Amino acid sequence: MKILIVVDMQNDFIDGALGTKEAEKIVANVKEKIDTYRGNNDEVIFTRDTHFDDYLETQEGKNLPVKHCIKDTFGWQISGKLDVADSVVIDKPTFGSTKLMEYLLSKQNISEIQLVGLCTDICVISNAFLLKAALPEVLISVDSRCCAGVTPESHNRALESMKTCQIMVI
Known about the structure:
Elements: E1 2-7, H1 11-14, H2 21-39, E2 43-49, H3 59-63, E3 88-92, H4 98-105, E4 112-118, H5 120-134, E5 139-148, H6 152-164, E6 168-169
Parallel strand pairs: 1-2, 1-4, 2-3, 4-5, 5-6
Helix pairs in contact: 4-5, 5-6
């Protein structure tokens, strides 16, 4: 079984509070990737960065003092350009998701997990490392044309770090 994980493709990361031109550019690629996986009857899972009104008082908020992805706001929603359909959506309060890891550990016969989304250098890399540690014999990959980082430089550094830890970058 192949699984696609679409990481944090939310309005605030695309063209909202923390949006970038690079993030806007990957939306069509991510949509195409989702369509391909669904066309092959593979599972598509979405993660959603989820914060609350007290975000600025959290450790993350003190280090990144920009309110974003506040639950039930427009910025928190997954881009309307992507079809969530009947996919599992996992809300996560921080970069990497232990809920995602637990969900995948409950699955049988996973042959490959591919990650796409935002931000390469924060949430994509965090989840890729968690999954590689939890499922060392499963092929974990990242499609670089379907990811964007905070900056192009940090995106490339994250891809190199993942390669070093045997996460395939395509």
